[in-house]
Every structure is written in structure tokens, then in C-alpha cells.
Amino acid sequence: NAGVTQTPKFQVLKTGQSMTLQCAQDMNHNSMYWYRQDPGMGLRLIYYSASEGTTDKGEVPNGYNVSRLNKREFSLRLESAAPSQTSVYFCASTPRTGTQYFGPGTRLLVL
Amino acid sequence: GIQVEQSPPDLILQEGANSTLRCNFSDSVNNLQWFHQNPWGQLINLFYIPSGTKQNGRLSATTVATERYSLLYISSSQTTDSGVYFCAVEPTGGFKTIFGAGTRLFVKA
Q: Where are the beta strands (DSSP E) in chain B?
């Protein structure tokens, strides 16, 4: 099992560019999550998907969109990147209830 | 919304020492988890512990849901225990996991 995988690992964008962060899990988990972590801070939930076909906003959804493509994949899109979106992005998955398993993260720098 | 507070914010230990990290939360929760983020940024789940006590090697955790707190005990600390320890809660009625700000631990050799 690869667990939770994320691509890319690093990305540099210019203000206004768009990009999609990819996340996939092979543990047959129902729920998936996207978080951001700013320097010296805890993680903040951007969006989550409680099950295939559903998505919902977390604490900090502005400037982001998500797609739960199928049970395995949950993508995060930045339509027009801003410097305030410079952060480390983590994807996680969990069975219906229980421990969350995290991917390795994507480091994003917006200039 | 629910508030999650962790203490202490920073902790320096000599290798071999014991420590207790605390997580207080302001409302009822469905579950509570403890994570370790190592110096390379990787997040590792330690405990899923909505109530009661669990142990895993040198680590143990206790959650007293009625009093809205959880404790993480680290015994005989090692340099590899260094990193940031996060408490995360899922409020009752939702999936919106809320993280505390973390306790940054440094264990000296």
C-alpha cells in the first residue's frame, strides 16, 4: 500500500496562475481532507469529502475548489493563486470514523 | 466554533526525561487524535482516543471527554521524539477536524 500520495511535491507559481494539487489513497477510505499549514502553525481544514460524491467547506475555503473524482482521488484547485496561498498543503484520508492518514505534503510558493 | 488549546507551546527535554503534553477543548467532540510532525514535516498519527487511555510503547494518552481535555505522556524521551505534537478534534455532529497550534518538543542528547 502506498497510503496517501500527493503530487507535486513542490510548486512555484506566479500571482494569478492556476494549478491543481492531486491526492490519491489506496486504503479504500471513505473520507478525504485538504489542509493547509502555515509556518509555525497548526493545520487548517480547507475542504473535506465525507464520502464519494460529496464535498463541503472547512475553516478556510476561500480561493479554493475541490473535486472528489472517485473514491480514491480528491483534488484541490487554485483558480487564481495569491501570495497569501503560499503554504504547505496536506491531504488526508480516514475510514468513516477513525485515525486520519496524511500524505507527504505539497510545498507551494506564490510569487 | 470549538477552541483547541495545547500546552506548553514549547518544551526542551534532556534525553531520558518524561513529559506530559496537554490539550484542552471547549466543546463536546466525536473524536480526538494526537499526531507527531517530525522535523521533515511528515505527520504521523499516534493515537485515536475519543475517551479512555491507550498506550503504545513509551507513549500513552488519556482523554477525559466529560472534562474536555486530553494528555499525551512521553516517557524516557529520545532525540527522535523531537518535532511538533498536535492534538486534533472532530466536533460533535461534523467532519470538520480542528487542530491545536501544537507543542514544539526538542530533546537534547
A: 4-7, 10-14, 19-25, 29-37, 43-48, 52-56, 59-64, 69-74, 83-91, 98-99, 103-108
Of the partner residues A45, A90, A97, the one whose CB lies closest to the CB of residue B31: A97
**Chain A residue numbers touching B42 (CB-CB < 8 A):** 102, 104-105
| pLDDT in the model for residue A41 | 84
pLDDT at A69: 86
Handedness of CA A1, B90, B82, A34 (dihedral sign): positive
Q: Which domains does chain B have, with CATH numbers?
A: 4-108 (2.60.40.10)
For testing the chain A interface, which of B30, B99, B103 should be mutated: the one with the most A CBs within 10 Å?
B99
How confident is the model at residue A47, as a pLDDT? 96
Instruction: Give the Cα-Cα-Cα angle A20, A26, A30 (nearest 5 degrees).
Output: 85
User: What does the pLDDT look like over A50-94, one tens digit per residue?
Assistant: 888 899 999 999 999 999 989 999 999 999 999 999 999 999 999
The Cα of A31 is separated from the nearest Cα of chain B by a number of Å equal to 9
- The pLDDT value recorded for residue B78 is 97
Q: Which residues of chain B have pLDDT under 70?
A: none
Strand A87-94 to B10-14 pairing = unpaired
Q: Chain B within 8 Å of A2 (Cβ-Cβ)?
A: no
